[in-house]
Every structure is written in structure tokens, then in C-alpha cells.
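Lecture 7 notes: from sequence to structure.

We start with a single chain of 171 residues. Read the sequence below before looking at the structure.
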Amino acid sequence: MIFGTPLISPLVRKVIRAQHSELYSGLMVNRTKSTGKIFSGEEFLRLIHYGGLKKQPPQIIFYTYVILENKFQFSETGSGFLKDFSSKHAMHSKCSKSLFFAGEFHIRPLVEGEDIGYKLVIDNNSGTYAPNPDCFPFVEELFRRNFPGLEIECLEFNNPKLIQYREGIKH
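Now the structure, written as C-alpha cells:
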């Protein structure tokens, strides 16, 4: 419906682009004031509040993301209609017909139950763009270079380990 030729497609894109403008203008979310530049994995973790792991009780927050030519855009994803709708890949990409990669990510402790380090678990779970898992080495290198010091784990959306993570089974 987003990229097709039916009469409804332009209307769908217009609604999604309006939602993108609302989200990224800061009207729908409480945005962190910063320079827009992050120089380390630790700064990224602080920006997203360690993905909920430092809350009491700890919780794992999932984020929907897109990687565009010069942007990494994401938001928390969830079961609430507005939160879930505002986290879709087409919205983050402003209906771009192509992007570098898309999916979901979350933060996990390096050692379960301990506050000694964290890793970014990133996947290719995007029905709209369906990224090829063969690109994971490039995605991993992109995150390593942009967020030095952050451990990265790339998993295909249907990987049993990712499914266990989602179900809350500890490793």
C-alpha cells in the first residue's frame, strides 16, 4: 500500500510523512537536547537510558530503527497503538523507497544479572524493507565505528537466540 500504484498509496505516504514530521520535530516525544553527535558506545547507552536495564525493576526496551544514507533514526516500539504505529520503518525513513538497513534493536547485559557491560542486539526485523542478513557484517562494522566500545550482536529476525531474548529467557 505504501509504494504501490493504487489511488490510496499517495494518501498513505502523506499520512506517514506527516507522522514522521511530528515525531522528528519533537512534538510527539520528549527529545534529549544534545549536539546530535555521539562519540562512543557509552554515550549511546546513556542516550537511550541503557535500554531500560538500569530501571528498577530492569526491563528490556525494544526499538525500531532505520539506517539511511547519513542518519540512524529510531524510537521505542511497543504494543500500544500509537507507540507501535509511530515506530514503523516507513515512518522513520519518511517513506524512502530504499535505505541501507532496518530492523529492531535492544540492549542486553554482557553477563545476565550483572551491571558490568552491555551489548547492542540488532536484527533485520522489517516487513516493509526486509534487509538481507548477508549485510550484517557491514551493519556490525558501521556500529563499531560509530559507537566505539559497544559490543554488537547481529541476529536474523527468526534466529532462535533472538526469539529466546524476546521471550525473556536468560542466557
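The longest strand covers residues 101-109. Keep this in mind for problem set 3.
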